[in-house]
Amino acid sequence: MLPFLSILALSAVLSAASPADTVQADDARPIERATMYGLGWANEYDTYLSPQEYRGIEFRLSRESLRRTRWADGRLVRQSFFQGYANYTHNHVDNNNALGALVNWNWGLHYDFPVADGLHLFAGGLADLSGGFLWNFRNGNNPANARAAVAVDASVGGAWDFRLRRVPFRLRYQLDVPLVGAMFSPHYGQSYYEIFSQGNAGGVVRFTSLHNRPSWRHRLSLDFPVGRARMRFTYLWDAQQSEVNHIRTHAYGHIFMVGFVKRFNLIK
What is the pTM of this model? Predict the structure, then answer.
């Protein structure tokens, strides 16, 4: 029930954040928006809370916007990607459960490299911000651990427009990898009371890079028409890992998502 309520709240945030569509104009640049809903498998691990892995089900929502800019002769494409998830997991002996939730926002630019007719490669960078928590139901003194991180991501991918029996399809892949950033983490065994009430906050914000936060997000999607609408299927492999302040964490998600895509123009 708690994951379902979390998803409803995230859905309301996504809907409220969506700007209104405007009519097309000759001097406007094309924009693409996709809203996706997903379900899949989650694997959570946080040695601050427990030495065991927790596995279960995950619900995820995402909202993506792509818009071609006038910069670099129209080759730069601006991307905004917002996602949120809630998962409910259990340990391998099935005597304890955990609830996790997180929101993540990426914003950045990609340079578009046309390779062939209908085939484009792209590369760029993204600002990456995230925040959430993992709550262990049976822990007493330290029942939950907060998650907060910022990073600069390298981002690469490609898109292929093709036809099968005259039906247009678009296959798209994107890989995002955090290169440098910072994250919040208590020290192993340190309580939040010590941090926020006693002022023992030294070293709880740490520099991160590939050596202590090796993470990545793969997205593979297929767009196709359904009547006058355009549908998208996506497979998402999200792997976030860290080893900071003698605490090891990972949050893995294998998610299958479905949603609709809108393509139109916006007046500047």
Answer: 0.86
Rounded CA separation 186/95 (Å): 26
- Please give the domain boundaries of the chain with CATH numbers for all domains: 2-17+28-266 (2.40.128.100)
Residue 109 structure tokens: 């630019």
Summarised one tens digit per residue, pLDDT across range 118-128 is 999 999 999 99
Q: Which tokens is 210 given?
A: 């590939």
Structural contact between residues 86 and 59, judged by C-beta atoms closer than 8 angstroms: yes
- List pLDDT tens digits, range 93-151: 999 999 999 999 999 999 999 999 999 999 999 999 999 999 999 887 789 999 999 99
Radius of gyration of the chain (CA): 20
CB burial class (10 A; 0-12, 13-18, 19+) of residue 64? buried
